[in-house]
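The data are set out underneath:

___
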Amino acid sequence: RYSVREANNTTRVNVLESRVEVDSKIALGNPVILKAGQQLTVDSSKISSIDLIDTSDPDWASKQLIFNDDALVDVVQRLSDYHRGKIFLSSELISRDLRFTGVLPANDSAAAISILSKSLQLTTQTWSSYIVSIE
């Protein structure tokens, strides 16, 4: 088992079981082999060094998204992966260094946005079930 996450022009590969070969244009034909308990990140200029990770099931496997002092921008980006529409974050909030620690449901984006908004005392506007603005 493995997981791949793309965000902010980077790709992170986590290996939970077995082995995975990671190749990219940057590797120039020299792929990296990851074993269980390892991760790496690839961006447009480099492949990061291999880091060790916990091999227990990822949070989303239990329909939860777990955050620990994560930037609001990163939390909303991750929530966007589970929301069928678009979540807009105001530029004023983007410029602030708001952090979030908590557990949000991965299978109910409306509830997750509500919990996040109440926790950080934010205002949300829902234009439809697909478009949400956080201010």
Observations:
- Helices lie at 72-80, 91-95, 109-120.
- The CA atoms of residues 10 and 43 lie 4 Å apart.
- The chain has three helices and eleven strands.
- The longest helix spans residues 109-120.
